[in-house]
Design a protein that fits this description.
This protein is an alpha/beta fold and about 375 residues long. The protein has 2 domains: about 20-110, Arc Repressor Mutant, subunit A (Orthogonal Bundle), CATH 1.10.10; about 130-369, Rossmann fold (3-Layer(aba) Sandwich). The protein has helices spanning about 20-45, 45-55, 60-65, 70-80, 105-110, 120-130, 130-140, 145-150, 150-175, 180-185, 200-210, 220-235, 270-280, 305-325, 335-345; strands at about 85-90, 100, 190-195, 215-220, 240-245, 255-260, 280-295, 350-355, 365-369. A 7-stranded mixed beta sheet has the order 5-4-3-6-7-9-8. Helix 3 (about 60-65) crosses helix 4 (about 70-80), helix 6 (about 120-130) runs antiparallel to helix 9 (about 150-175) and helix 9 (about 150-175) runs parallel beside helix 11. The relative contact order is 0.11.
């Protein structure tokens, strides 16, 4: 179960829409945006958790449990029921109406281990909205808004969204590719995870391959601190260490059996230098794997829903982050295979191949050789 639509080669968008069609699409987009902001309110204020813990509730019940004003509780409950996220009994008395959190909604908004977990999407949207004045200025002058500027809303949301995929699917996915599995299962294998973020990819690698040691590297100090805490709580801190390093401008050592870069190359102002450092860190015959968004091979307009999602992230988060450091390659989220291959060749690799890993959310795995 994925949290986003799967790729489609036949987007259901008219090539020559009418004004009414365009207006309706924007109306639906507005509804979705408000749904995400309501999701953010519900998770931040603990409203879903209160319904999960205490069971069906009236607005007064929810207000008391969550410590919020009853009038706001009532409006939020009604919004969620009208949207189909909660169910409501048939009472015509608003004060007496009882609302229930269905199991499906609970999984999506509360279960951090589910592949359907989507709650961080609301926080990401709220974080972007808070930085909109800075984004407008960046668009005007050519600067950017860095990952550090976006703050906890970005780094924690991305880590939370990716976590279940790493915890549930990464080990089995890599085990299904013999050329990767054989390297990682070597006794004493040394693994580098570049752009390790919240650390869940490094932790998943260590859990899947208990004879390996993993070094995570990230340019964002708070992410490194978060990753270190996560590794400690996961019980793998003896084999997983995190380092505050700008990989594109540093020597991270050598002799690694495998180097990974999970969903970060498209964000980088200097992807060629980053990949050159990765190549230098590999032992002879070592393995380099990049996981990035599974974008379409070429630009096509109109595009499908997933491509639209990628461009949305690129417009508001990934491209501004990359552009916040100059000079910048200015890649953005929509990094097509040909672009990554050109970066890899310039960094000294001979090229790349797509690994046979399917059903892994919205991502694609490449082996650089």
């Amino acid at each position: 179960m994925t949290t986003v639509p799967t790729q489609s080669t036949s987007p259901e968008v008219e090539l020559v829409p009418s004004a009414d069609d365009v207006a309706m699409r924007l109306m639906m987009a507005a509804i979705g945006s408000f749904d995400l902001l309501a999701l953010h309110l519900g998770t931040t204020l603990g409203l879903y958790q209160a319904l999960q813990d205490g069971g069906p509730a009236t607005s007064a019940d929810l207000a008391a449990r969550a410590g919020i004003h009853e009038r706001y509780a009532r409006e939020w409950l009604e919004h969620q029921a009208v949207g189909g996220y909660l169910t409501a009994d048939g009472s015509p008395d608003a004060a007496a109406r009882v609302y229930t959190l269905p199991a499906a909604t609970a999984e999506v908004v509360l279960d951090t281990g589910s592949l359907a977990y989507s709650a961080p999407m609301g926080r990401i949207l709220a974080g972007v909205a808070a930085k909109m004045p800075d984004l407008v200025e960046a668009y005007r002058v050519g600067g950017g808004v860095s990952w550090e500027d976006f703050g906890p809303a970005a780094r924690e949301s991305q880590a939370a969204m990716n976590r279940p995929w790493f915890e549930v699917r990464l080990g089995p996915a890599l085990a299904g590719v013999p050329e990767v599995h054989e390297v990682l299962r070597r006794p004493g294998a040394r693994v580098a995870d570049l752009g390790s973020g919240g650390g869940w990819s490094s932790i998943a690698l260590a859990r899947a391959y208990p004879q390996a040691t993993v070094d995570g590297f990230d340019v964002d100090r708070p992410s490194v601190d978060m990753a270190s805490r996560n590794a400690q709580e996961a019980g793998v801190a003896d084999r997983v260490r995190f380092h505050h390093v700008d990989v594109a401008n540093a020597d991270i050592g050598e002799g690694y059996d495998a180097v990974f870069a999970f969903e970060c190359v498209h964000d980088l102002p200097a992807p060629v230098e980053f990949l050159a450092t990765a190549r230098a860190a590999l032992r002879p015959g070592g393995l380099m794997v990049v996981m990035d968004e599974a974008v379409q091979p070429e630009f096509t307009a109109p595009g499908d829903e997933v491509e639209r999602l990628f461009y949305g992230f690129s417009l508001t988060v990934c491209l501004p982050d990359g552009m916040s450091h100059q000079p910048s390659a200015g890649t953005g989220t929509v990094m097509r295979q040909s672009t990554l291959e050109s970066y890899a060749r310039e960094a000294g690799f001979d090229g790349l191949t797509v690994l046979p890993i399917e059903d892994f959310g919205i991502w694609r795995f490449y082996r650089l050789s």
